[in-house]
Write a structure and sequence with these properties.
Layout (H helix, E strand, L loop, with lengths): L2 H17 L2 E10 L2 E9 L7 E5 L20 H4 L1 H6 L3 E8 L16 H18 L3 E6 L1 H12 L8 E5 L26 E6 L12 H7 L5 E6 L21 H13 L6
Parallel strand pairs: 3-4, 3-5, 5-6, 6-7, 7-8
Antiparallel strand pairs: 1-2, 2-4
Helix pairs in contact: 4-5
């Protein structure tokens, strides 16, 4: 079996574990005439917190009514059962109904007021549903969404904490949007965790630019965790390369959970 095939098999096993959690599909009104479908999974006991997981790429999950997904290979998506095992409820937003066809979430939309409004609705609903702190966790292009939400939102629709994994740190021809460190991160006042693979070869995520990101986060409680090892298979910006923490998912999730647990938030 090739390394890439083994990576796919690992992803499939994590996906199967995820299906063991109780899944619920909810269609949330977010803006006038716009609905955003979310997948909700939760532990048997009351969750310690809620994690809104923002996928990368086009942002399209393709959530079916039975809770299965068309696209489930992304690091956060395939690891969602691991977060549930740590006692968190997870909420996975799909693309909103007005972006339900290709190219789905273009770069500019992830930094738009409309996207922020959608995320505010998801966060506020999650907080009301579970009466727990809500963290937004993004990976790859999902870090643009998570950082934009943290900068733009306030009140019940704002996150209580942020986790950025495999952050977008450079504008490229394929991803010309604003690097995360160029957003107004000085406005963030909630805890921020940054997780990045030292061997990430995706041109949009060069580890050498991490110091600039952390420098922009000096206004809040922030920490950087970096990783080595695991396996890398397929395109360097895809889910089963080092960019997607392939082979070290459990370690990364454990560290994220440890950070969140050590920064309880009371509203």
């Amino acid at each position: 079996m090739s390394r890439y095939a083994r990576a796919i098999a690992i992803g499939a096993s994590l996906w199967a574990a995820a299906l063991a959690a109780a899944a619920e599909v909810v269609d949330l009104p977010t803006r006038p005439g716009v609905v955003e479908r979310v997948l909700v999974e939760q532990p048997e006991k009351a969750p310690a917190a809620v994690l809104v997981l923002m996928t990368g790429g086009s942002g399209r999950l393709g959530i079916y009514e039975n809770g299965s997904l068309r696209n489930d290979g992304n690091f956060l998506v395939r690891s969602r059962a691991l977060f549930v095992q740590h006692g968190y409820a997870v909420v996975l937003p799909d693309t909103p109904s007005d972006h339900s066809t290709p190219p789905f979430l273009r770069e500019a939309f992830r930094e738009s007021p409309e996207h922020a409004a959608d995320l505010a609705a998801v966060i506020a609903w999650s907080r009301q549903r579970f009466s727990r702190p809500v963290w937004i966790v993004g990976t790859s292009r999902g870090t643009q969404s998570a950082a934009h939400a943290a900068v733009s939102l306030s009140g019940a629709g704002a996150p209580d904490g942020v986790v950025l994994t495999s952050s977008i740190l450079a504008a490229t021809r394929l991803n010309p949007s604003t690097p995360v460190q160029d957003l107004n991160l000085e406005q963030i006042r909630v805890p921020v965790l940054v997780a990045h693979h030292e061997q990430d070869q995706c041109p949009s995520c060069p580890p050498a630019r991490l110091p600039r990101l952390m420098d922009k986060l000096k206004s809040t409680t922030a920490k950087l965790l970096t990783y080595q090892g695991g396996a890398s298979a397929g395109p360097v910006c895809e889910a089963f390369a080092h960019h997607g923490f392939n082979g070290i998912e459990t370690k990364v999730v454990d560290d994220i959970a440890g950070w969140i647990d050590s920064h309880p938030v009371a509203r």
